[in-house]
Amino acid sequence: LEVSNLGEKDILVLRLDLTDRSSHEAATNSVLKHFGKIDVLVNNGGRSQRSLFVDTNLDVYSAIMELNYLGTISLTKYVLNHMIQRKKGKVVTVSSVMGIMGAPLASGYCASKHALQGFFNSLRTELTDYPEISIINICPGPVQSKIIQNVFTENLAKSIENSGDQSHKMPTDRCVRLTLVSTANDLKEAWISDNPYLAVCYLWQYAPTWAWWLMNRMGKKRIQNFKSGVVSSILSPL
């Protein structure tokens, strides 16, 4: 059993709404007032999606981008200003394997994660004068969490009824450990996933024609499952 040396002054919990961008500067200042500095920002807020594009209200796409993308870069902006003044810090963003590939029933979620990938890869090139500020993108595959219970569906008022089995997904603590290892080693991008999902990432990167063929086969089965009320993983086994 590990004993922590942290005291009450070492912990500060703030309520934060990523969609309330006007509150992000004050939240950042509250942390700075309490600790005096911010060494690491971990962007880990967001919601996924389970719906076909043809059935989905555009308000859902707007909400996904507002939360997953704009909320994340808004908070990053205020924290990064502090890191630039210190010339030191780490910005860790939990993207997804869906930030490097596409998948059915998650077009809005994939779009938001692609946006984060493009933004932070571009931001990294703007910080060449600050070699001690690291921009780190974490791309997990399926991980055990409550992400399915909280997904967007075809309209903002509807929630999903069946969250499905999570046993095949990576345990949360392993994903966290690998994220910490990636952060400590300043990796620009880390794919954190078990196979066969990890193998599909490599296919998508290095053999996209094969990846599209495979995704079409997987996607057809996944859409059939979805229409029959079965919730399956993004990359359901054939």
UniProtKB/TrEMBL annotation:
> PROSITE patterns annotated for this entry?
ADH_SHORT
Q: Which Gene3D superfamilies match?
A: NAD(P)-binding Rossmann-like Domain
Domain of life of the organism encoding this protein: Eukaryota
In terms of SUPFAM superfamilies, this protein maps to: NAD(P)-binding Rossmann-fold domains
> Any idea which UniProt keywords this protein has?
Oxidoreductase
Q: In the record, what terms sit under GO molecular function?
A: oxidoreductase activity
Pfam families cross-referenced by the UniProt entry: adh_short (PF00106)
Family from the record: Belongs to the short-chain dehydrogenases/reductases (SDR) family.
| Name of the protein in question | DHRS7 reductase
Q: Give the gene symbol.
A: Dhrs7
